[in-house]
Design a protein that fits this description.
about 45% helix; disordered N terminus; single chain; Arc Repressor Mutant, subunit A; two-stranded antiparallel sheet; 3-stranded antiparallel β-sheet; alpha+beta
Length: about 120
Amino acid sequence: MACRFRISGTKHNIIFSRVKDMRLLVRSEMYDLTGFQRDLLFVVAGLDEPHGLALKKELEEYYEKEIHHGRLYPNLDTLVDKGLIEKGKKDRRTNVYTLTRRGRREIEAREEWESQYLTSSPR
């Protein structure tokens, strides 16, 4: 079953699915993120209150190409809007980003989902 609700003017989908031990697992829109947004979320999770340029540097090392500000900051804003990260102020010019509890849960759910395919025996 699926339901829709609004938080701060943003529409979110919640899908409830039953798992083996009969707990309800809540999945949000992690599946709806682009690969770049997921990578960005993982980098935010792995660094201690990174600022935009630190995130840009990490992603440039991984992608082996320049990440333009016009790509980075709108995707950070999307993750903030989805409630997966929070944006704070380090000083007047520098924003820092931290993972929210929801962001942590989404990463854990994604890791669990991936592990069922990555740890299975070859067919």
